[in-house]
Structures are given as C-alpha cells and as structure tokens.
Amino acid sequence: MKLFGTDGIRGHVGDFLTATLALEVGISAGKILKERVEQDCADRADQANAIAIGQDSRTSGDMLSTAISAGLTAAGWDVWHIGLCPTPAVAYLTANSPEIFGGVMISASHNPPEDNGIKFFGANGTKLCSETQQAIEAVLEARGHANLSQPSQDWGKYQEKSHLIDRYQESLQTSIATDLSGLKVVLDLAYGSATLVSMQVFRNLGAEVICLHQEPDGDRINVNCGSTHLEPLRTAVKEHHADMGFAFDGDADRVLAVDRHGRIVDGDYILYLWGQELMEKNQLPNSEIVTTVMANLGFERAWQKLGGNLVRTAVGDQYVHAEMVRSGAMLGGEQSGHVLCRHYAVSGDGLLAALHLAALAKQKAPLDELMDRSFHPFPQLLKNVRVEDRDQRRNWQSCDALVQAIALAEQDLGDRGRILVRASGTEPLMRVMVEAETFDLANHWTNSLVGLIEKQLVKA
Fold first, then answer.
1. Whole-prediction pTM value?
2. Which residues bind Mg(2+) per the record (predicted)?
C-alpha cells in the first residue's frame, strides 16, 4: 500500500481521500508514533503526549481533521487542534513545545480546492522520514486484513488550542531586526492559511499593507490567485505603486514575489539574495545553497561566480531538507518558492522568507535593484501533460521512444542547456522542463517532448 508521495498523502477528496481513510491513517500513525516516542524519546515519553493538528481553509478540512483526530485519540494520543494556520506553524510548534511529539497538517498546498492532503511532522518539526512513512503504510495495510475493533486502552483527549498560533507569530516578528516602515507591500493570501497572521505580522513591523484574497475561503483557495497565479498580484503592485508584492500558496509554506515593476522573483532569486546576505555575515557554511534539479542554470553559474557551492537534489522539500541536514547547509529551497533557512526555522516557510526579503530591500536597495544586480536566468519552459494512468506515469522510463527522444535533445543541447522530464509526486501530471541559451531552442525541444508524451502515454 503506497499512500505517501513527495509531500505526504494527497489526492481528490471523496474518492481517494475519505473520512474512513483519514481515521485509519490516524490509528496507524498513532501506533507507529507511540513506538517511536518510547524508542527514541524515552526521556520525553511521559511529557510528549500530544499531536498538534492544523489545517488550511478547504471545506473538506474539518471532516478530515476530525477523522484523523479520532484515529489518533483512539491510539492514545492527546490531540491539540490549532485550526486554520500555515503549515510551518505546525512544524514550529512541534519542534518548540515539549508536550508535542508530532504534528499533522491537513492541506493540499497549491492544489485546487477539491483536493486535500495529510502531512505528518516528527518530534523535531521535520517531515517524517520514508522509513516511518512505510511503517505507517504497513500497519494500515495489516489493519485492512484484520478486525478493525480497537482494544480497550487509555484514550487520548481532544482540545482546541488555537491560541498557540500566537507563539508562531511572535517567532516570525522576532526573526528580523528591521523596521519595515516606509515599505508598501501587497500580499496575495490565496484565500488560504496565510490569511491568519501574515497581514498582522507585516503591519506590526511597520509596513503599509494591501491585501488580496484575504478571507479564508475553502471553495476558492488557490483559484486564480496565490503563488500559482501571479497576475492579480503583479497588477495590484503596479496600480498601488507598491515596493513589492508577495503571493503565498494555500498553506503558506511557499512564497513568490514581484518587484515594483511586476517582475517575478521566484525561489531561485530569493535563495540567491538571501544567500548573499548570509555569506556576507559568515552565516553560510561552505557558501552552500541546496536546491533541486529545477533551479535555473543562470542562478547556478552566478552563485558559483561568487565563490558559492550549489547542490542539487530531486524535486521535493523533503529531499532538500535531508541534504541540508547531511551536509550542514543552512539555506535551501525550490524554485517554486519553498525556502528553508535553518537559522530561523525547521521547515520551509513562505511568511518567513517574505519578511527577510522585505528586510533586505529595506536595508540594502529596492527589490528591483537587487534583482538587476543578481543574475540573468536561462530561458526555461515548463509544461505539464495530464496522464491519468498512474502506472503510465510511474513507469514512463520504460517508453523507449521517449527515452531516446530525451537523449537526442540532451545531445543537441550539450552545455547550452538541460532537460528534465519527471512524473509529479502530487498530481496526475508529467512535467517537462527544458532550459536553453535561447527561447527558440527551449521551445523547440519542449514542444517536441510534450507531443511525444501525449502520443505515447496519454490514453484516448
């Protein structure tokens, strides 16, 4: 039974993701986490008796959080329900509260409203390792072949703890020592988790704030707004003559920015600019930034020119985090805007990254000038092809025609670009990314490979 993808359990609510599944996942995860706390944290076993649960604004969130809470309490855990909050708030509270051993976030991140997901966090506030995920899947599968009755035991308690979000908000505000007064900032809150604290944090630090899509609305979360649809933000920044704008995804663990001219500041630029700042302060071990295979070649070459070291991983924040822990790196992230700085957080945090980028613009130069001084990206095209058949997606490398076409394209590009073809870990999509010295070259090979995927993998 394979449930966990690159970012927890995620899918369409009602067919794949149901209340019954959430209940069973809660019981199974509760059992494994009980074993972990006894094995790995015996000194905390009597103190760490709670699991924190947060959710974004999706209408299915209450149903799923209630079901998984029932499973966790059945397994003997107390459940502390935080309610609407950003995903990094759950990670922060889990890492910094001795009573909390693990966390759960009910969210499908940037996915459309009809999807939802379940993300787990361990005692240190990081996402569960693959070994623990597999153990949960094994227990869940075994329960599927056994009597589902639960033996009598000490049941856990369910408590509302929404006030704990104040601790997270305070941590954001104290992470920077810069007064943001004088800055005019537009925030696109995507009708999701960012609606809770982001506007207040920026205003508390002195910024003038204009908000878009600022009410939590589970039926409109991510719809034509947020970090996957930047046009409303770009328009608002220019209309209000703002200094910059930030767009968050549904659970606020990622952010993209725009400068005052409406130019997009993606995760590559955020990493470059924040990395420069940390390097100048001698706070970047080995001048290393960890990113993924999606990072732009222009970013990589510019960072190397500064004397920096850029390490690439597979796509997914869990892989970035694992490499950062292995190498001791303090800054890493993805082009999509998921940025992790271990000086201040244990997980990627869109609000944290936005605040530090705003602080850089206040301290050094306007964001557009910082952009001008950074790097020129290679033309990069990313196209998605919907492939509903899971086996076709997962086994795409067995398609000889596609593999041969990729090899031909890579031979043609040489050191003038690169190609990445992969199956999405969160959606029924094949993703094709081509990067080249010229747009025409990138466009040619992108269209060629997309057409071949549609012919070979998409069933009529």
1. 0.89
2. 109, 249, 251, 253
